[in-house]
Amino acid sequence: MSAATPQHIMQLGMGFWASKTVLSAVELGVFSTLANAPADLPTLQRKLALHQRSARDFLDALVALKLLERKNGIYSNAAETDLFLDRAKPTYVGGFLEMANARLYGFWGSLTEALRTGKLQNEGKGGEDFFAAVYAEPDRLRGFLAAMSAISAGTAHAIAANFPWEDYKTFMDLGSAQGMVPATLARAHIHLSGIGFDLPSVKPVFEEFIAHQGMSDRVRFQAGNFFEDILPKADVIVMGHILHDWDLAQKKVLLGKAFDALPKGGAVIVYDAIIDDDRRENAFGLLMSLNMLIESRGGFDYTGEDCQAWMREAGFSKTRVEPLVGPESMVIGLK
Amino acid sequence: MSAATPQHIMQLGMGFWASKTVLSAVELGVFSTLANAPADLPTLQRKLALHQRSARDFLDALVALKLLERKNGIYSNAAETDLFLDRAKPTYVGGFLEMANARLYGFWGSLTEALRTGKLQNEGKGGEDFFAAVYAEPDRLRGFLAAMSAISAGTAHAIAANFPWEDYKTFMDLGSAQGMVPATLARAHIHLSGIGFDLPSVKPVFEEFIAHQGMSDRVRFQAGNFFEDILPKADVIVMGHILHDWDLAQKKVLLGKAFDALPKGGAVIVYDAIIDDDRRENAFGLLMSLNMLIESRGGFDYTGEDCQAWMREAGFSKTRVEPLVGPESMVIGLK
User: Fold this and answer.
1) Residues B274-292: b if buried by 16+ CB within 10 A, e if exposed
2) Would the N or C end of chain B have less CB density within 10 A of its end CB?
3) Do B57 and A289 touch (CB under 8 A)?
């Protein structure tokens, strides 16, 4: 035997243990409970309705994963956990993890079949259309929209900070969901006003969220279907976690419609977990593309180079790629 | 917003994406295929029967996860991948990952239920006994035993190297499975001879493996049930990945029977992913204990301190803990 060990391989392959433990902890409300009050094992076991057999192993595993701290037998949230996994805080990102726990973990169990057939493996496997199904049920829709907000929060701040918003007055967020990006942009730049564009059933959820954020005076909702309807005009059009849902022809349609809706000098901002041009660094972006295999009929993630080429084909004169947060980047196209 | 980001949380929570991608790659034979010959995308797509939609994303994700390399469009195994994930090599550890892919990934989907009820979530959920079921079907048994060898290989070498074997002549491996530990000990120390002890149905698999390893002259199989039968006598008794399968009373029974089967001066070596005494470092050991929740009626992993206390209670006069490989340690008890 050489000094080589299979540690990296085993840790990666068995990573679903740690992952599912975190997802179950979010589902059980471990972090929201501890945000209210640090607690010892018997208290937590009772509050979380955990069976005594594995309660201690479960909580200590979360300590070893650095999500919890434990001092003299009292468990508490680690700083980042308290900020991002307490349901009561506006910084909560657990919505996406709740969705992953309730849906994606199971659907990813069929990854091999998806790779062999090229076919989605989610609710749509039986022929149901995922978006139609989700958007038709108010509770499921709220959950989905909250999940989308969760994964857009950090990115929204980066977009607000890293684009010359002083050159523009209006924006439109295509597929706005709850309105995390519109609310964040409007709060950061008081001269901006904007539109959230999404399917009609999103309207009450959007308006409630924007009102809660105190941005109703400058952010309004417009209902529509971005494939069937003409897009509202704005100086800047934002498309976040939208383009990767669709196949190549649909992606080009959306970029073309954005081009048409912009004034000369206007800009489109596309953001996703954009894959590095050499396709060897952004593991999350590549895995997100496999998630699109699981979740959609033709969706896939793409490199900055891919997206810039589609933008130029749509008529945009200048394009560039800028990193945002973590695996996310934005591709900017100027008309 | 502070500089805090939810990156660590999201990466951990969504870790099942990378994990399942690796598990599917093992299932599809990506690494065994590339061990024979590096190949470009169209060749791999054909050889692995991958649909074209996501074949490239899948392979590039494995590049980004450092399991594959890609040069001028030709994919090849990374060095460790080639050593540990090529089915044709004796160093293959994919057996455990195959088992995880076929069984554990799905069962872990019910972790929340397990935590709430304290009940196992595997084949035994319907009342079937897991070991009885696995041991009754030759193909399933072979797969399970190969998986056990896979996770014991590195550890077996460490045990061969880090114990004063020169002081002993015979050993017995309790719950030997295929015989990875007996074969490794016998090869490393030519003065040793030993017994693999396991259920009768393991016999042909054990004898084939030991013959293949060229160790049949010094390693023999003895069939038995370690709860019902008297254990064969030996200078050293090894129990690897055995004790964690059972509840506290059963653990103590096994240590007591080992004590009875040893001569004065004999030793028991217990190894598992032993949890650190403070229960805050060995995440894998704590997660393995949750895996025992999923897989067994009363099993759990334990700290070195726990195990030493049980050994002293069984009559062992001296005990110590020694690290092995990665998350694994051994607890040694001297009679």
Assistant:
1) bbbeebbebbbbbbbbbbb
2) N
3) yes
Tally Cβ neighbours within 10 Å of residue B75.
21
Q: Bridge-partner residues for B240, per DSSP?
A: B271
Selecting from A18, A114, A154 the residue whose C-beta is nearest the C-beta of B6 gives A154
Kindly state the tokens that stand for A181: 């990006």
Of B2, B54, B85, the CB nearest to A118: B54
As for the ipTM of the complex, it is 0.94
Q: State the Cα–Cα distance between residues B257 and A117, nearest whole angstrom.
A: 53
Query: Which residues of B fall within a CB distance of 8 Å from A111?
Result: 20-21, 24
Distance of CA B330 to the CA centre of its chain: 14
Alpha helices in B137-279 (DSSP H): 138-161, 180-188, 203-212, 248-261
Strand-pairing partners, residue A34, are none
Burial of B216 per CB tally in 10 Å (0-12, 13-18, 19+)? middle
Per DSSP, chain B holds a count of helices (H) and strands (E) of: 16, 10
CA distance A310 to A302: 11
Q: pLDDT of B78-109, one tens digit each?
A: 999 999 999 998 788 888 899 999 999 999 99
Contact A51 B115 (CB under 8 A): yes
Instruction: Find, among A151, A218, A157, A158, the residue nearest to A178 by Cα.
Output: A151
Q: What is the pLDDT of residues A246-279, one digit of tens each?
A: 999 999 999 999 999 999 999 999 999 999 999 9
Query: What's the length of chain B?
Result: 335
- Residue A125 is given by DSSP the state G
Of A14, A57, A119, the CB nearest to B289: A57
Q: Based on DSSP, count helices (H) and strands (E) in chain A, helices before strands.
A: 16, 10
CB distance A100–B14 less than 8 Å? Answer: yes
Inspect the interface and report whether the beta carbons of B21 and A287 lie closer than 8 Å: yes
Q: Does A244 participate in catalysis according to the annotation?
A: yes
Low-confidence ranges of chain B (pLDDT < 50): 1-2
Q: Would you say the C-alpha torsion B84, B86, B90, B93 has a positive or negative sign?
A: positive
Q: Are B78 and B68 a contacting pair, CB within 8 Å?
A: yes
* Residue B263 to chain A, least CA–CA distance (Å): 33
Given its phi and psi angles, is residue B31 left (phi above 0), alpha (psi -120 to 50 degrees) or beta?
A: alpha
- Residue by residue, DSSP assigns B19-68 as HHHHHHHHHHTHHHHHHH--EEHHHHHHHTT--HHHHHHHHHHHHHTTSE
**Of the candidates A164, A333, A156, the residue with the CA atom closest to the CA atom of residue A237:** A333
**Which DSSP string do the residues of A56-74 spell out, in sequence order?**
HHHHHHHHHTTSEEEETTE
- What's the rounded Cα separation, in Å, for the pair A21 and A66? 13
Tens-of-pLDDT digits for all 335 residues of chain A?
A: 345 788 899 999 999 999 999 999 999 999 999 999 999 999 999 999 999 999 999 999 999 999 999 999 999 999 999 999 999 987 888 888 999 999 999 999 999 999 999 999 998 887 777 677 777 788 778 877 887 777 788 899 999 999 999 999 999 999 999 999 999 999 999 999 999 999 999 999 999 999 999 999 999 999 999 999 999 999 999 999 999 999 999 999 999 999 999 999 999 999 999 999 999 999 999 999 999 999 999 999 999 999 999 999 999 999 999 999 889 999 999 99
